[in-house]
């Protein structure tokens, strides 16, 4: 998920990777990711990188992250840490903002698996790779007050997206514990 380059380029790749199976046109993916990065966040939002660490990711995934947490988006609402990415949507319409992101990447019809223990609307998405150069990814979405927390983890090469579930659960517990 991590590539060399500016933080904006990193975030564009991270968003595209975490949502897998994107439209074939690379320019469209870049435009969608750029639009997502430009999303305005409400005043008083919490920077995502204050909620997740390299140690969290290593403990949950068993893989050493490539570098330190990298913030992206206005106000740092996105944080990439190796094979994991945290997005923190804030405000009264945070759930709708996340759903808008899913629609823009054409992932809003993907099957959702309820995530017991993470709140009433919490769910997993298990995304299959759209080509051989990508890994499957798991996503866990939960609410905390007026925030929607979206955590994604790339599966290890050759592993199904569902294999990310224990890592997602472990990371989400850590993130939610710091958010409260």
Write down the secondary-structure element order.
HHHEEEHEEEEH
State which percent range the strand residues make up.
15-25%
Placed side by side, the strands forming the largest sheet appear as: 1-2-3-7-6-5-4
Sheet/helix structural class: alpha+beta
Main sheet summary: 7 strands, antiparallel
Rg over alpha carbons: 15 Å
Ends apart, CA distance between termini: 28 Å
Total helical elements: 5
Global morphology: globular
Number of self-contained structural domains:
1
Sequence stretches where pLDDT stays below 50 over 5 or more residues: 1-27
Q: Approximately how much helix is present in the residues?
A: 25-40%
Q: What is the mean predicted local confidence, pLDDT?
A: 81
The number of E-state strands comes to: 7
């Amino acid at each position: 998920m991590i590539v060399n380059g500016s933080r904006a380029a990193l975030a564009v790749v991270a968003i595209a990777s975490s949502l897998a199976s994107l439209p074939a046109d690379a320019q469209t993916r870049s435009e969608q990711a750029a639009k997502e990065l430009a999303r305005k966040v409400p005043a008083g939002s919490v920077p995502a990188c204050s909620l997740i660490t390299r140690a969290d990711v290593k403990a949950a995934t068993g893989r050493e992250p490539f570098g330190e947490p990298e913030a992206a988006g206005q106000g740092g609402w996105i944080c990439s840490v190796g094979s994991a990415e945290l997005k923190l949507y804030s405000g009264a319409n945070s759930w709708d903002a996340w759903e808008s992101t899913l629609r823009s990447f054409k992932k809003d019809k993907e099957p959702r698996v309820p995530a017991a223990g993470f709140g009433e609307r919490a769910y997993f998405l298990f995304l299959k790779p759209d080509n051989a150069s990508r890994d499957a990814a798991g996503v866990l979405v939960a609410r905390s007050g007026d925030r929607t927390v979206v955590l994604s983890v790339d599966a290890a090469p050759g592993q199904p997206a569902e294999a990310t579930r224990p890592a997602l659960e472990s990371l989400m517990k850590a993130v939610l514990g710091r958010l409260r």
